[in-house]
Amino acid sequence: MKSYRKELWHTIPTRRAFINITSQVEECLRESGIREGLCLVNAMHITASVFINDDEHGLHQDYEDWLEQLAPHEPIGRYRHNLTGEDNGDAHLKRQVMGREVVVAVTGGRLDFGPWEQIFYGEFDGRRRKRVLVKIIGE
Ligand code: ZN
Predict the structure, then answer these.
(1) What HEC string does the chain produce?
(2) What is the pTM of this model?
(3) pLDDT tens digit string along 97-119?
(4) pLDDT at residue 57 in the model
(5) Residue 52 pLDDT
(6) For the chain, what is the mean pLDDT?
(7) 71 near 93, Cβ under 8 Å?
(8) Distance 58 CA to ligand 1 centre (A)
(9) Ligand 1 centre and the CA of 93: distance in Å?
């Protein structure tokens, strides 16, 4: 069995954003040479997410609006977590809702997606360097 590991670093210039990382993961799969197996992609930070959905117009703004309703960034004082002096209590909750990781089947050397599926990185406390782990196992 082959095993491949890579960290994808991103610095998102805003507090929150969603970026499509599908092509970066496909590049990892090419580098790995693995044709049949599993590909895990996870955020390595507790205030960021990796998830799969469509890259559809409006959807990312809908996520932003929905998450802000569930866990508004302000007022910062509404979160007990922020009593530590941090201001990212909302980001921890947003990450919990949007998830930590995805696993995609690898078939014939390609990510075996359903229709319209793509991989996204969700940032909820950006403006610093953060990592996504790609781990691919198979043959
Ligand atoms: Zn925190």
Answers:
(1) CEEEEEEEEEECCCCCEEEECHHHHHHHHHHHCCCCEEEEEEECCCCEEEEEECCCCCHHHHHHHHHHHHCCCCCHHHCHHHHHCCCCHHHHHHHHHHCCEEEEEEECCEECCCCCCEEEEEECCCCCEEEEEEEEEEC
(2) 0.96
(3) 999 999 999 999 999 999 999 99
(4) 82
(5) 98
(6) 97
(7) yes
(8) 28
(9) 10
Structurally, what CATH architecture does the domain formed by 2-138 represent?
A: Sandwich (2.60)
Residue 18 Cα, ligand 1 centroid: separation in angstroms? 19
* Dist. CA 127 → ligand 1 center (Å): 14
Ligand 1 geometric centre to CA of 87 (Å): 7
Domain ranges of the chain: 2-138
The pLDDT value recorded for residue 72 is: 98
pLDDT tens figures, 52-84: 999 988 999 999 999 999 999 999 999 999 999
Burial of 15 (0-12, 13-18, 19+ CB in 10 A): middle
User: Ligand 1 centroid vs 131 CA: distance in angstroms?
Assistant: 16
